[in-house]
Amino acid sequence: MSDRSGAVAPGGRLAPRVHGTVRIVGAGLLGASIGHALSALGVDVALADTSPAQLRLAIDYGAGRAARADDRPGLVIVAVPPDVTADVIERELVAHPDAVVTDVASVKLEPLRALRERGVDLTHYIGSHPLAGRERGGAISARADIFIGRPWVVCRDEETSATDLALVEGLALDLGATPIEMSPEEHDRSVALVSHVPQLVASLLAGRFVGAPDGSLRLAGQGVRDTTRIAASAPELWVQILGANAAPVVDVLDALAADLSSVADALRAPDAPGARRAVADTIRRGNEGVELLPGKHGQNRRFENVVVMVDDTPGQLGRLFGELGELEVNVEDLRLEHSPGAQFGLAEISVVPSAVRPAVEGLEARGWKIASTTND
Fold first, then answer.
1. Mean pLDDT of the region 284-306
2. 203-252, pLDDT tens digit by residue?
3. Domain limits at 44?
4. For the domain that residue 52 is a member of, what is the CATH number?
5. 6 inside domain
6. Distance (Å, rounded) from C-alpha 356 to C-alpha 101?
7. N or C: which end of the chain has fewer CB within 10 A?
8. Strands, sheet with 344-351, edge to edge from the N-terminal-most edge strand
9. Of 292, 321, 340, which residue sits at a domain end?
10. Contact 366, 323 (CB under 8 A)
11. Is the predicted pLDDT of residue 79 greater than 80, yes or no?
């Protein structure tokens, strides 16, 4: 059941909205992470997984207990690979007819379409998807805090009851996420743009490093690391995700391919009329797109960066943050970059524009070397 009243539990902490027994099917990264977060709130978490080793590992790490045949869950969370999501949802709806069943698969339309074609009663099913994760999977990588501040899409329809909806949204809120209602179609188009195609682009770019001269790779800085970070993801899972959401992904890829072709044509003849403008417009449009991305607390705010040289010795980063606090400068974001062989790093600190001058003057007065200040 779910209680959105925000009651206070014994000991003074806020009582979870989800209570009773929660069954989680799939003890991998997302399933175990949800288990950790709910267990920390005092919720009874019953874990099930087809892999005995994965299940034991998740239990050993504290994500919950082993599910029992006599469990009567009020909420079932399906956290299995996309190619078996529909099968497991159907099985759980039959096995637990009084429970609300949700899943956390990254594609929403294909499982729903398969269930409808089978004639499954979906009255108590609500698809959902937390936009959270890590490059490495499995129970050993699970963490209770990966959902904090992240969107959690909830796909309701006309048959969804207010009580069932409140339960799934309560789950998201208990885990620190922000519930967002979308249709399955809208969800799949959205993740194609902001998740699935970026994964392919990162993988394609990182793939160009294979066979590259060592000297070239030694020049890699934080920019290329940021761009290719998600290329470390598991191929097996992404084959399933991309296959299940192929049409929206292809739409974005086709448009991106056309853009790449236009830039390549311009660079083949960089002195031709309009070529430089084509390149400049490409970079400018990227600037505009970045500005549309929500920042801290979901705000579209423009920050400036102060880049500080930090000695690579223990305690220096903590000292930097402490002195920024003394200067009453709020750090909106932070990125660290290390140069190979150098005995210092560069801390790129994002602050509101009005804080740039006091940050620079105050830090320099305390002996810090400012490498640069740049617009974000």
1. 74
2. 999 999 999 998 888 888 878 888 998 898 889 889 999 999 999 999 99
3. 21-182
4. 3.40.50.720
5. no
6. 49
7. N
8. 333-338, 344-351, 304-311, 369-375
9. 292
10. yes
11. yes
